[in-house]
Amino acid sequence: MPRRIETHFLAGAAGRIEALLEESENGEPVQAALVCHPHPQHGGTMHNKVVYRTARGLRRAGAVVLRFNYRGVNLSEGTYASGEGELDDARVALDFLLARYPTLPYTIAGFSFGSRIALRLAAERPTTRQAIALGFPTRYGDATQFLRNPVPRVFIQSTNDEFGPRAEFTEFVDRVEGEKKLIWIESRDHFFVDAQQQLEDVVSDTGNLSRAGGV
Hints:
- This protein is α/β, with parallel strands linked by helices.
- It has a single domain, classed as Alpha/Beta hydrolase fold, catalytic domain (Rossmann fold), CATH 3.40.50.
- It contains 5 helices and 8 strands.
- The protein has helices at 49-60, 84-100, 113-124, 166-175, 196-207; strands at 5-12, 15-22, 31-36, 63-68, 106-111, 130-134, 153-158, 180-185.
- An 8-stranded mixed sheet has the order 1-2-4-3-5-6-7-8, with helices on both faces.
- Helix 4 (166-175) links the parallel strand 7 (153-158) and strand 8 (180-185).
- Helix 2 packs across helix 3 (113-124).
- The protein is globular, with a radius of gyration of 16 Å.
């Protein structure tokens, strides 16, 4: 039986939100995951390669995954709203996912700008199993608000991320309080351009419910 892939239009504050729901490659899902895409004013969409690989890695780990486009992106209505509106879009998407799969544990993930959205949303939802922040941009806005969070966090970062350079990023993660893990991936830039299969494998391992040792 082929896995389920569905397009949805969710009712957001700025109008409809385009979303894509994909079930696990490995039978019935054992968890759910929301994946948030990069900055909408810099070409970010739910079809971004890192977002796609993240979603596929989570599906390999048994998750049903929801990706979505923020307001004003592709078929989503509205206009960019400085991160606050995009956070609200993510809330709507997560509420839809949890209503659809109310008994499953869930993860919130995001890449770049989307990692900030994911961490902020997870902080509001302490029942989140874990938050996965890929390519977290320490050079985009204030990062101090991300130091505290009740949810376990996994940071996945390129060794040559121009928006979160290694020394600066290591210092940031050292200051992060609570349960956390930092995974470096050897790659030449922010977009993991030469290491996307490794990125997918790391996400799959990170998302695996049966792995030992927690986050």
